[in-house]
Amino acid sequence: MRELPRLVSIGVVRSPLRSRVDAPRQGSEGAPDARIFLEPSYADALRGICAGDEMLVLTWLHEADRDVLEVHPRDDPSRPLTGVFATRSSDRPNPIGLHRVTVRGIDGLELSVGPLEAIDGTPVVDLKPVLRPQP
Amino acid sequence: MRELPRLVSIGVVRSPLRSRVDAPRQGSEGAPDARIFLEPSYADALRGICAGDEMLVLTWLHEADRDVLEVHPRDDPSRPLTGVFATRSSDRPNPIGLHRVTVRGIDGLELSVGPLEAIDGTPVVDLKPVLRPQP
Questions:
Q1: pTM of the model
Q2: Chain A to chain B Cβ contacts (< 8 Å)
Q3: Of B8, B88, B125, the CB nearest to A128
Q4: Which of A38, A45, B6, B70 has its CA 20 to 30 A from that of A83?
Q5: ipTM
């Protein structure tokens, strides 16, 4: 298995969601707004982001099990075992979370975004603008 | 700066695109089809993926410069310097590529997908289904 370079944390999620049990499966399923605190060394990389922008937040799902290759979708045992690459399970070999959000506001190194289903303390690894018409 | 665990390569892109100079900036801008060869140890994680599926391919853009924080969008010097998090520049702290593709076919550990602007030899780190109505 070929190992790649390490990711770095560019920031952290601060959210009222404290555990995976509390979190909806997708932002569109009732997730709250959250804040992202950026590491000061990346401040210049935010230039041009504005309230109202549609963004993709990429996170490192630090509580995920990287050894899982198949799951019952939505933890429903009546659904057949499915490869994790055919699902949005957070358990997967590289547990990168992909979250589409709206920027509610930006104040220095603090972004307010939502809805976001990532739990409090989740490391953020990238931010990207949504491309039109496709992500 | 907080370092996170290493990514692992789950597969590799095989493409007629041999260098960044040849590659379009987005798949929708005339990129060719490509193949993804999955590492055998992840075969079970493909179960349920079918020809015709809309997928997101996450790659590690191994030729990117991780120290770049601002760019002129589309390398156009007449456009103002913009933070990389407000652009789709491949130069960024964590150069994770996000590519929306259609699965053209699947044969064992080999997926045919397209369009894909990633160059030959790019490591693949994740595959996710497109969520409807949002990514």
A1: 0.94
A2: 179
A3: B88
A4: B6
A5: 0.93
